[in-house]
Amino acid sequence: MKNDIKEILFTEEAIKRRVKELGAMITKEFEGEKLLLIGVLKGCFVFLADLSRQIDLDCEIRFLTASSYGFSSVTSSKVKIDKDVGFDVKDKHVIIVEDILDTGLTLTALHAMLVGQKPASLKTCALLDKQERREVPFEADYTGFICPNEFVVGYGLDYAEKYRSLPYVAVLKPEIYTT
Ligand code: IMP
Ligand code: MG
Questions:
Q1: Is residue 160 included in any domain, yes or no?
Q2: Is 131 in the pocket of ligand 1 (CB under 6 A)?
């Protein structure tokens, strides 16, 4: 797996530091409240696990599935989400937790769907933000790092279901994407 890596963009240490900062920000902002963290599967699983342990508040943790990429590294511009979330959002302070904000289509669709269920507040948190790739205007309330316009893997992010368990965020060698 490590032989496929061209370059590490965000190291394990840098991510740890930033996640701690995000957790502290969220803790301060929601002092005295309970939170509902909704992770967008599957890419969020590592980030949400680490972030939730840096938030010093009562947290309910739920997951939603959204997919726009399938097995390719080129977006299909179509977002599939479960319309029936299967849990209650009404009157709760909700933060949607995403691995990466890319075209903005996923978070735009999820945000619109959840707003309709009348949460007390609704915020979004993305570890990475590929600002250059935006197709619809959407900004996260909490962002870990601005990410260059490259397909990245690791810390939950995959390429064809591989590399999610790498502890850092990296770019693969070009030949990996073409084989
Ligand atoms: P958006 O709807 O284009 O903003 O898509 C965001 C989703 O696409 C993320 O939740 C990821 O699952 C996936 N994605 C976007 N960029 C990358 C990448 O560089 N590596 C892995 N997955 C990505
Ligand atoms: Mg995702």
A1: no
A2: no
Domain membership of residue 3 (yes or no) is: no
Task: Tell me the C-alpha distance between 107 and 139, whole Å.
Answer: 9
For residue 134, report the phi and psi dihedrals to the nearest 5 degrees: -60, 130
The answer to whether 88 is a known catalytic residue is no
Q: What is the pLDDT along the chain (179 residues), one digit of tens a residue?
A: 889 999 999 999 999 999 999 999 999 999 999 999 999 999 999 999 999 999 999 999 999 998 765 444 555 456 777 767 788 999 999 999 999 999 999 999 999 999 999 999 999 999 999 999 999 999 999 999 999 999 999 999 999 999 999 999 999 999 998 76
Please tell me whether the overall predicted TM-score, pTM, comes out greater than 0.90 for this model.
yes
Q: For residue 113, what are the CA distances in angstroms to 89, 96, 165?
A: 11, 12, 30
| Ligand 2 center from residue 178 Cα (angstroms) | 22
Q: Tell which atom from ligand 1 comes closest to the C-alpha of 98.
A: 10
In terms of residue numbers, what domain contains 25?
13-151
69 lines ligand 1 (CB under 6 A): yes
Out of 102, 129, 141, 158, the active site residue is 102
Give the number of the atom of ligand 1 that is nearest the alpha carbon of residue 133: 3
Provide the domain count of the chain: 1
CATH number of the structural domain spanning residue 70: 3.40.50.2020
